[in-house]
Amino acid sequence: MVIWQGDFYKRSLFDQQGEMLWELVITDQQGTMIHEAKCPQSQANSDWLIRQLQQATQKNIPDLIQVFRPQSIGLLTSAAEKLGIKVVPTRRTSALKEVLKRRSTNTTIDVSTLDRPPPQGLPENLWGEQWGFISLKAGDLIQFFRDRPIPIVDMPEDLLPINLNLPSTVFIPGIVIYGGRKSMYLARWLEEQQPVSISYIPTQIGLSGGLVLESGLVDRWILATFEDPEMAQAAQKYEDRKVMSKGLHFLTVQPDDSGITYTGFWLLNDD
């Protein structure tokens, strides 16, 4: 499968007529430039994008283009559909973001980052009965969950420990939610939200804090809060292990702590 990563955004640059410029940047998954072009804002539309995509696809046509910027999705989807190319919204465009970050070195605005809203509370009807921190060695993680009949599973190939060159002995931290009778309902909601990462956000050093779920393109959810110093220490250990695992972590939803039945599993990585 041929996958490209694309972005279409406003530059803090103007043409000779004083009109703001928009820039199209397309790379492959390794960050190799496929196509780039600029146009004045008055031409920033699907027709212009179609012409640019036609130029970009003269030698090779991708199966899909990954897009991380919400404002780019509508126009790029409209243009790509004319050429039979699927556009997939996702935060996981690390190669493209790295290219954009390098291009922003001499400017005050890093175009690879997006404004994110404050996290919102999880709907009460989704709350599980309990939750906790767990960890598994990288060498055991995938086999442990892959061999189980789990209804909802998300294991992106690029996040597998072996593809991140992680030693098999490194512990991969995770969050487990025991959902009880709401387990499947919670897992289906999470599937719709497209989990990306879960981070510990301390509110008072060593005393309290919470877990924030990043999902979709810019969505943020308060997954849990706590005021227990021991829980805060466990949360900090969870973050320390994420450093050792190159940001790799996971989320699992289970009806209970029997270890027999699993409802959902997501392999995550700090974006």
From TrEMBL:
One of its GO terms (molecular function) is RNA binding. Pfam families: Tab2-like_C, Tab2-like_N. It comes from the Bacteria. Residues 3-103 form the RNA-binding protein Tab2-like N-terminal domain. Residues 113-268 form the RNA-binding protein Tab2/Atab2 C-terminal domain. PANTHER family: PROTEIN TAB2 HOMOLOG, CHLOROPLASTIC (PTHR34556:SF2), PTHR34556. This is DUF1092 family protein. It comes from Gloeothece citriformis (strain PCC 7424) (Cyanothece sp. (strain PCC 7424)).
